[in-house]
Design brief:
This protein is 49% helix and 5% strand. The protein contains 17 helices and 5 strands. Strand 4 and strand 5 form a beta hairpin. It binds carboxymethyl coenzyme *A (CMC).
């Protein structure tokens, strides 16, 4: 039996003409609107959608989010199961290869990534050039772009082998660059990668190793960091991922595209929110100050950082996992005193009409910072930690964009509302 094609009928009140536009995946193609014209030489109708509130920019098979139900799936697998049963290396493989690895595939993948953890010695000179109090995210963004100068063949983005090398290098070297940025900020010598350790364990070693011949990460903290990397690995078309796709669509090399993505992540409305949450909790200082703080937020004098999401209108499933993870971490590190303020803040906010009406719930950043802080990461390293997990998602989304025959260079349209054509007056004639 033939299924009825779904269509949307639009009547143009200017001409009285009706148009039938096909609906596919509950979406109409914006370019189908271009046929709606008054005169034959009109450009045709466009859609206006600042901040892409209702515009799908791609078709994707990587991450699914149901924001109302609080569901997050990577390649169909629930985030809760991935966090429980897999390592970050497995999840990175899954995102890039569309299948969970077998044991042999995982071993090969992990070995390829860990043999690309070292960076060129000149990268240290780049790090040394930064001011002593440079924000590590600024250093990290710059270092990613600088990597492109060491691997000029990465420009061959249509060569699958080159692309693979980039995945190994970017996943392998990102933690090294992140740790170097931290070591520079505290005036400690850079620590070379230890390829016998796990992905998270090696990162902890590069961050914290002092004089011990072999750094042994605490297994609970190592596991917690690995889970945090998984939770941050991908989140479909968020701001930094859109930057990765958009910048990558110009066919610049992937290191520069990743630097652009990391720059987008730096902002306090995105990956910088975990840092902003800690600064906010610090500013609130004690539980008795919470009602006054909430009042200010409701008066529009600031935001409750770590709350709200463009897509989730329910509890962010990542926040629930992190809340549970925090208990394990605090057993090792001792309870973060800020946790009490955070729990009370959440309790009050979730009962408040303002937050209920707007469906504002804790997001991934609300509790992650408390764990990072308990693990002795300085606050300004938090967005860098987010970037380490998200690198796998950026690369998977970049690859999907490149291989999608419908994609072209990203180039939105505008509605021009400025002056009409006019002559330039001489300098002496301008008032
Ligand atoms: N505190 C107080 N009010 C808020 C908040 C908040 N955190 N978030 C949204 N609102 C209000 C906002 O003022 C608006 O109210 P009204 O309708 O009266 O004008 C309404 O809720 C809708 O907000 P919006 O700004 O239109 O929503 P958005 O989808 O554009 O913004 C967001 C999403 C995440 C940028 C925003 O919720 C926010 O600024 N949250 C705080 C920053 C944060 O935690 N960011 C991390 C996001 S999750 C991880 C990531 O992606 O990096």
């Amino acid at each position: 039996m033939e299924t009825k094609k779904e269509t949307l009928t639009i009547t143009d009140s200017r001409t009285g003409k009706a148009y039938e536009l096909p609906i596919e995946n509950e979406t109409i193609r914006a370019t189908d609107l271009r046929q709606i014209k008054v005169k034959p030489d009109d450009f045709g109708i466009m859609t206006y959608d600042p901040a892409y509130m209702a515009t799908a920019s791609c078709k994707s098979t990587i991450t699914f989010i149901d924001g109302d139900k609080g569901i997050l799936l990577y390649r169909g697998y629930p985030i809760e199961q991935l966090a429980e049963k897999c390592s970050f290396m497995e999840v990175a493989y899954l995102l890039l290869n569309d299948a969970l690895p077998t044991k042999a595939q995982l071993d090969a993948w992990t070995s390829l990534i860990t043999t690309h953890t070292f960076v060129h010695e000149n990268m240290k000179k780049l790090m040394d050039g930064f001011h002593h109090d440079a924000h590590p995210m600024g250093m990290f963004v710059s270092a990613l772009a600088a990597l492109s100068t060491f691997y000029p063949t990465a420009k061959k983005i249509h060569d699958p082998e080159e692309r693979k090398m980039t995945y190994y290098r970017l996943l392998g070297k990102a933690p090294t660059l992140a740790a170097f940025a931290y070591r520079h900020s505290v005036g400690m010598p850079y620590v070379h990668p230890d390829n016998e350790l796990s992905y998270a364990g090696n990162f902890l070693a590069m961050m914290y190793r002092v004089a011990e011949p072999k750094f042994k990460p605490n297994p609970i903290l190592e596991h917690a960091l690995d889970v945090l990397f998984i939770l941050h690995a991908d989140h479909e078309q968020n701001c930094s991922t859109s930057a990765m796709r958009s910048v990558g669509s110009s066919h610049v090399d992937p290191y520069c595209a990743a630097a652009a993505a990391a720059a987008a992540l730096y902002g306090p409305l995105h990956g910088g929110a975990n840092e902003a949450v800690l600064r906010m909790l610090d500013e609130i200082g004690s539980k008795d100050k919470i009602p006054a703080f909430i009042k200010e937020v409701k008066e529009g004098k600031g935001r409750l950082m770590g709350f709200g999401h463009r897509v989730y209108k329910n509890y962010d499933p990542r926040a629930s996992i992190i809340k549970r993870l925090a208990d394990q971490v605090f057993e090792v590190t001792g309870r973060n005193p800020m946790l009490d303020i955070a729990l009370e803040l959440e309790r009050i906010a979730l009962q408040d009409e303002y937050f209920i009406k707007r469906k504002l719930y804790p997001n991934v950043d609300f509790y992650s910072g408390l764990i990072y802080q308990a693990m002795k990461f300085p606050v300004d390293m938090f967005p860098v930690l987010f970037a380490l997990g998200r690198m796998s998602g950026w690369l998977a989304q970049w690859q999907e964009m490149l291989l999608d025959s419908e994609q072209k260079i990203a180039r939105p349209r505008q509605i021009y509302l400025g002056a009409g054509k006019r002559d330039v007056p001489m300098l002496s004639q301008r008032s």
